Amino acid sequence: MNKKYYLILFLVFILVPIYWMVNMSFKPNSEILNRLTLYPHEFTLANYKEILSSEFWRAGYINSILMASMNVVFVTIAALPAAYAFSRWDFRGDKHLFFWFLTNRMAPPAAFMVPFFILYSNLNLIDTYWAVALAHCLFNLPLAIWILEGFMSGIPKEIDEMAFIDGHSFPSFCWNIFLPLIKPGIAVTAFLTFMFSWVELLLARTLTNEAAQPITVTLTRSLGAGGWDWGVLAAAGVIAMIPGAIIVYLVRDLLATGFSMGRV
Amino acid sequence: MGIRVENLCKSFGTEQVLDGITLDITDRSFFSVVAPTGAGKTTLLRILAGIESADAGTVYYDGTEMSDVAVQDRSVGMVYQEFINYPSLTVRENLASPLQVSDENYSAEEIERRVQETAEMLKIDHILNNLPEEVSGGEAQRTAISRALIKEPDYLFMDEPLANLDYKLREQLRSDFERLFSEQDTTVIYATPQAGDALAMSTHIGFLHDGTIIQKALRDEIYYRPRYLPVAEYLGEPPMNIVPVTLVQEPTSTDRHFEVDDDTRIPAPGFDSLSPDQEYHLGFRPQDMQLSDSGEASIAPTLSFVETVGSTSTLHMDFQGQEIYALHPDPVHLETDTSIPFVLDPQKFYVYDSEAGDLIATGSNIPSFS
Lengths: 264, 370
Fold this sequence. Notes:
The structure holds two protein chains of two kinds.
Chain A: H1 2-25, H2 29-34, H3 46-53, H4 55-88, H5 94-106, H6 109-122, H7 129-153, H8 157-166, H9 170-181, H10 183-199, H11 202-207, H12 215-220, H13 230-250, H14 252-259
Chain B: E1 3-12, E2 15-25, E3 30-34, H1 41-49, E4 56-61, E5 64-65, E6 76-79, H2 91-100, H3 108-121, H4 137-149, E7 155-159, H5 167-183, E8 187-192, H6 195-201, E9 204-209, E10 212-218, H7 219-224, H8 229-234, E11 241-249, E12 256-259, E13 265-267, E14 279-284, E15 289-291, E16 302-309, E17 312-319, E18 322-328, E19 342-344, E20 350-353, E21 359-362
Parallel strand pairs in B: 3-8, 3-9, 6-7, 7-8
Antiparallel strand pairs in B: 1-2, 1-4, 4-5, 9-10, 11-12, 11-14, 12-13, 14-20, 15-19, 16-17, 17-18, 20-21
Helix pairs in contact in B: 2-3, 2-4
């Protein structure tokens, strides 16, 4: 019985900030700043109207979705063959290379801030989707390779051989036999990759100015002449949570399978 | 036709698994590679099928060198010990898969017809719509075998396909195999550590030892005339008994006997070609040992235990620290830890050189095959 109460307490503890953000997003600034209210007394949708009608905010969301999606595509395309190679073939230094990939994931993004800025400045990529999407690959690719390698190694190598003996060409084997088997792994990888890219702030902020700035950056740059507009900020935060929730909902079955298999 | 292998070598790290295998596999035969686990049977099969490359040596299918032919372009099927099917496809789709990717461009009706036909032949037509994980081990292995057979390959490789099945299913599939392959034009290459399986199904048997096929012959020939000690000690259930002996010439007569020690003298009439006072390994099959009624005995090992299956008894005995088996057609009731006197029939003896281990003489009742 006691355990249940602890769990409920913990759940409340986790959910309070989220509730507070939703709560704030329906209040006018006067109520937010002047009173502590547990629910919106002066209920308003003005904050959401402001966001949905403003080009400044809308661009942030679109940029974020595009960047995160591009990142997912790059990472998946590059990680699938890499993970297959690590999982199926022995080559000189494969274990060291695999570990080195992982260590990239361990480095703090701040360490790469300056090199990326200089590099992309020289390549004229600053303030483009490419800059952020490619920069995030540095962190997402090792994780993706590591997760996918775990899934692929869970599939007996004999299946590959069997397919070749049956007459499947390599592309036919990948498409008809292999990819369906690691679908949960791809879903988990895509989900983690998308979410990292969606919430990452430091590199995104360094590599964009205005044209390509994602929503996380927009959130930090919304200081107007009249100070912080708290209600709008909260509404923007609520909207920023929605894509993640939608993705989880769409692939929840695959995620459930995926999180219980492989290396997640 | 058939497969020819010349001087095949393969090593993993420092371990030489295959060491110069030269072998002819007769077209449309059922060829079993027999060897204990870990002797390299699987490696040999994989190289023959083309999914692994050899360090040296050449494989010919029907006279054509196969080194540069991709496995997709060979007419081969493979069945593994683990029941390997495509987990995301139903049994029906599993069977159809090799036909769908074939160069022959089968029509949908043709594929469906052959799926039905093959499924009926292997008695899996009731599970065609199930996924492999939903069927039993025996059915999963039948699915794998059907998929290997459906494109009617010239060569079918089976790597211990019965090993992971329980006894009853083994027996059943074994008799299915005999029926199936007597009707097919397929050459079967079958790897197994089970001498019994090989003796039951094969037309030819090769014995793999120390990286080479030390004897390859027709089934009866390798059974009745195992040319080397390792073959004799392995083929047969239970295997042949081997006892180290010395051939002694009686000083007062022309009689000779094999002497194990002072108490055990086994008469050796008819082995005139052997030189006396030499050490040999004497072999005799468990079914050729007769319980002695008169008390007169060639050999008297100590009984460890009796294993009775149905009406046949296998006597496990100890003879000077060595395990000896005898087969008896009726259930026997004997006291363990006592000496059991046996009479041996010298006409069914095998005599092996004690150093080289090759067969140098046999009793007159052993068929000669030449």
